[in-house]
Write a structure and sequence with these properties.
Elements: H1 9-12, H2 18-24, H3 49-58, H4 68-79, E1 95-103, E2 108-114
Antiparallel strand pairs: 1-2
Protein name: Protein kinase domain-containing protein
């Protein structure tokens, strides 16, 4: 069966591509101990992908970037994370000490300090 060459925009910019993911983080399930919540093996230091993925998914309705494609990419990252490294939307109101640096090729560049999010 021939594979379709038509893909939607989300698939074109998918961040959970298996090949890329495997190069970045190989999961050693026996190395990180057991999850205190569910009893499964952790997939990273103090990180259970199942429990944390579910926790992140429950929070999807509480935030939006205002762009459905960006939201879908962030949600995919959070749904498929096996380590504590994932994309997160941070509202502008959480940034501190915002300083203009310069105008770039596609917009303005700013420096910010991240406030406490949790």
């Amino acid at each position: 069966m021939e594979q379709s060459t038509t893909t939607n925009n989300l698939n074109k910019i998918s961040i959970s591509d298996k090949l890329v993911h495997e190069k970045i983080h190989k999961v050693d399930y026996g190395k990180y101990g057991m999850c205190k919540e569910c009893g499964n093996k952790n997939t990273y230091y103090n990180w259970c992908s199942q429990c944390n993925s579910q926790r992140l998914q429950l929070n999807f309705e509480n935030w939006t970037s205002g762009n459905k494609v960006v939201d879908a990419i962030i949600q995919e990252s959070q749904s498929n994370c096996t380590t504590c490294y994932f994309i997160e939307w941070i509202p502008y109101s959480k940034f501190k000490d915002i300083k203009y640096i310069a105008k770039g090729g596609f917009g303005k560049i700013y420096s910010v300090l991240e406030g406490r999010i949790y």
